[in-house]
Amino acid sequence: MTEPPSPLADLLRPRRPRPHRPGRGLLWGVAAATSLLAGGLGFAFFGLPEPLRALFTLLDDPGTPGGSGAPQAAVVEAGPPEPPPMATSAHFDRLDPLSVDALDLPDVHELRRPQRSPGGARLIVEAVELAATSTLLQIPWIDGAPRGRPRPVPAGPVPGDPGSATTATAPLHARGLAFAAPGGTHTHAWAERGGGRPDRIVVPGFPGDALPGRHPQDLAWHPTRPRFVASTQAGAVRGLELWEAGQVTSLPPAPPGHAEEPAWHPGGEHIAYVLRGEASSSIAELDLTTGLHRVVAAAPAEQHRAPTWDRAGRRLGFVSSHGAPPGGGALWTIAPRADPRPHRVARGVVPPSSGPAPFTPDGRWLLATLDSGRQPLCFFPVEPGRPRCFAAPGISEHRDPLLLVDGEVWTVVAVARPDGGDRNRLVVYTLEPLR
User: Fold this and answer.
1) pLDDT in tens, 388-434
2) What is the pLDDT of residues 42-53, one digit of tens each?
3) At 286, which helix (H) or strand (E)?
4) Measured between alpha carbons, how far is 271 from 305 in angstroms, rounded to an integer?
5) Mean pLDDT lowest for which of 75-89, 141-155, 295-309, 387-401?
6) What is the pLDDT of residue 154?
7) 374-381, long-range: CB within 8 Å, 24+ apart, which pairs?
8) Bond into 81 cis (ω within 30)
9) DSSP states of 61-105 as a string?
């Protein structure tokens, strides 16, 4: 890679840390605890210094005689003992990509959520055109980069050549394409709306619409079986429904709120999802073997979203407004079965427009956009440490990074914007794996 004209530190604007006033935190803690005791609500601690701050939300215990039967959840929001600092010129390691490639799509105003087919031959990207219609484009993936002429995603596979079928139905709004596990009967699906028809999910090769008229969104395939779960609407409430070969199963209803953004556990027996309420949203989990829901991360008046599992299924990552600068996001992780306390990984990241922040294969890093300066891409360590950031000269405002692992080379595909430009482009970085 050509050496940038300035170090990566020039891309970042350090933020001044908030001064810590121990006395004030202690007074707030005493006042809050006294108030809660007087109201007979048990105990809680507020206003303590951030490394000790914790918010405990206790819900009904189904095992308690006389309880309502709601699933038990002890939800904790806490900063780690030593929160990692913001990535500034003094607190990051710079990564130099092995190569940088870019692809411009002149007729496309905005790009979102790039992903690659399981076989590795195609890159799929959501494209918003100047006419405000959205389509799904497939781009041939050749020699480690997107090359060739983009085409609309096929609406039905042809034996031996999935890319040769009829095209998707423009000008419908197509979004949220997801690939099934390799080797399944159905290879991919996406959501559509508009065109004078009910909202639906299109499953190429399946005769008919999936989940028609239920405003389906947030499609997620099972990790090993040809089935997917989606967020659908029945009346005024959104819930989760399971689809497999045309058979639809309504999953046990969530606690009060809307179930959105489902993410399968790698073992296939649990689904993490966003539980959205009127003033906040939390991260919850559904155990398919018992039908019980459990809230694993919540905070009053805060927004949690984009849950994702590491490959081992031990740790769950998500983006939250809790512990983030105003209007920004923070990266958090939690190990629901080993440690019920969420830990903040990074304070200032750009919330993804769709999809989660991906883990590296070993689960030690999360890939996201730093919300500072020209918004480079960074690998943020799950354990305390310094992020590793990279960006190409003349490229800024990275979004929706996709991490591809091909042997001893990592490839990151992201949507970005050239300096001074008004349209997005696809940027492809190849890097040596992090050790």
Assistant:
1) 999 999 999 999 999 998 888 999 999 998 887 777 889 999 999 99
2) 322 223 233 323
3) strand 281-287
4) 14
5) 75-89
6) 65
7) 374/11, 374/419, 375/11, 375/350, 376/8, 376/11, 376/12, 377/401, 377/412, 377/414, 377/429, 378/87, 378/92, 378/346, 379/95, 379/434, 380/84, 380/331, 380/345, 380/346, 380/349, 381/84, 381/345
8) no
9) -TTSTT---PPP-EEEEE--SSPPPP--TTS-EE---SEEEEE--
Which structure tokens are listed for 91?
Answer: 């607190």
Reported residue count of the chain is 435
Q: Is the pTM of this model over 0.90?
A: no
Domains plus CATH for the chain?
Answer: 93-431 (2.120.10.30)
Question: What is the rounded CA–CA span in Å between residue 123 and residue 59?
Answer: 44
Token couple for 228: 């997917």
| Tokens read off for 273 | 């999802």
Token pair listed for 179: 């690939």
5-30: pLDDT as tens digits: 333 333 333 333 334 444 434 433 43
Centroid of chain to Cα 335 = 17
